[in-house]
Design goal:
The chain has three helices and no strands. By secondary structure, the chain is mainly alpha-helical.
């Protein structure tokens, strides 16, 4: 039975770490600077500057979307870990209660 319990503990730790890791990724994405206008002088005028401008605009939109999705996943992982911990504690209490009740009946 110890092996199964250890496996459950490991899975819960992985879920918790996932939530923390995703939160860290979100912070990293939030820290990225806006690219539009930052390198205009380096590209000069013309097609290359226009293409980079398009890329920068798309990147900003995509980055904002990714931040939202990463945050949602982080919150789900954290909530799942909390729910599993709560269930684990409730089951442990129920088992303790059943054992104590069984000892009293003897």
């Amino acid at each position: 039975m110890g092996d199964e319990s250890d496996h459950t503990r490991l899975d819960l730790d992985v879920i918790k770490e996932m939530g923390t890791g995703l939160s860290n990724v979100k912070k990293a994405f939030e820290g990225l600077k806006d690219l539009s206008g930052k390198y205009e002088d380096d590209f000069g005028n013309g097609d290359l500057a226009d293409k980079f401008g398009d890329f920068a605009s798309n990147w900003e939109l995509s980055r904002e979307k990714l931040i939202g999705e990463i945050d949602a996943l982080a919150q789900i992982a954290k909530a799942a870990a909390k729910a599993y911990e709560d269930i684990d504690h409730q089951l442990a209490e129920a088992i303790r209660g059943a054992r104590e009740s069984g000892k009293k009946q003897r």
